[in-house]
Amino acid sequence: MTTIRDIAKHANVSIATVSRVLNNNEKVNESIRYAVLQAAETLNYPLKNLRNKPQISPSVIVLTRAETSTSAAQGASMREFERRVWDAVHSVLETRGIATRLQQSSGEPEDIRQYAEDVSINGLILLGGIIRHEFAEELLRSAVPFVVAGSRLEGLAINAVMVDVAQGIREAAAHLIATGRRRIGLVNGPNTTMTSLEKLEGLRLTLAQHDFAFDPRSVVAADFHPDNGYLQTKRLLDSLPDLDAILYADDSIALGGLRALRESGRTVPGDVAVVGFGNYELAQYTDPLLSSVQFDMSLIGKMAARRLCMLLDEPDGDAWLMRVPCAFVERQTT
Fold this sequence. Notes:
Blueprint lengths: L3 H8 L3 H8 L7 H13 L4 H5 L7 E7 L6 H23 L4 E7 L6 H6 L3 E7 L5 H10 L3 E4 L9 E5 L1 H14 L5 E5 L5 H16 L9 E3 L4 H14 L5 E4 L2 H13 L9 E6 L12 E5 L1 H17 L7 E4 L1 E4 L5
Parallel strand pairs: 1-2, 1-3, 3-4, 4-5, 5-11, 6-7, 6-8, 8-9, 9-10
Antiparallel strand pairs: 10-12
Helix pairs in contact: 1-2, 1-3, 2-3, 5-12, 8-9, 10-11
């Protein structure tokens, strides 16, 4: 059965444009109207029936990952990120008359059928944790316009907005070196994520710029969870007990790291300086207060929504990678 998504692809226009044409909206260029109607006739779409139906309101789904279990700290960080991005997306799209709704997804390729077959869904915004290669590849095949907010995928031409994590780590590491730290460790995120790889590259570049050798033992990987931050910090200290600074890939990981340092008898920042990443609300309630790398979560949402609007208005086939800058926020742990 032919859908308006098929017509949009055939006419090389957006789904929103097809909807306007089929509902006799006057604000459509006549040459575009002709191209859409020709495509509909070629694909044997029942034009007369659809013209008599109520106009379909455009909508965008913002997808988040359906988590089975999270700690209070990890969950708070995730909810804070999702809330700020969602608020920004909603504010941008609302001015365009586009309805938005937040929905959880397991991120499995089979979930995409419902989005592709629902003609009221004009596009998707995927919050970082939901996106995987198989999911993105299936979305590309479905021709549903989408933008990833908070992450990117290597090897796929997709529109994405992400934090310039390498720049953030460079600023934090440079600050540690400027304050006399010489043996810096990194409790990174999972090795499977592009953000983790870029954070590691940021640290290695900063060390090289200051003529410091990089020791592979100074980097361990952790899930975004305080418990894992605690365990991996202990492992790092066992391997390199003379570390005088530790960078953490996320504030929730740093929360567990602070406990491990305290139990080891080390003072923060006297013996070991600590820097988190994200500058979530929890960073203002640790003891001592956590220094962190800050980025504008709302800007991520605004940029993702504006890029999606461009794709809805006029599909261009381009894949934009947009980066949001970071800033180091100093508190008591450095």
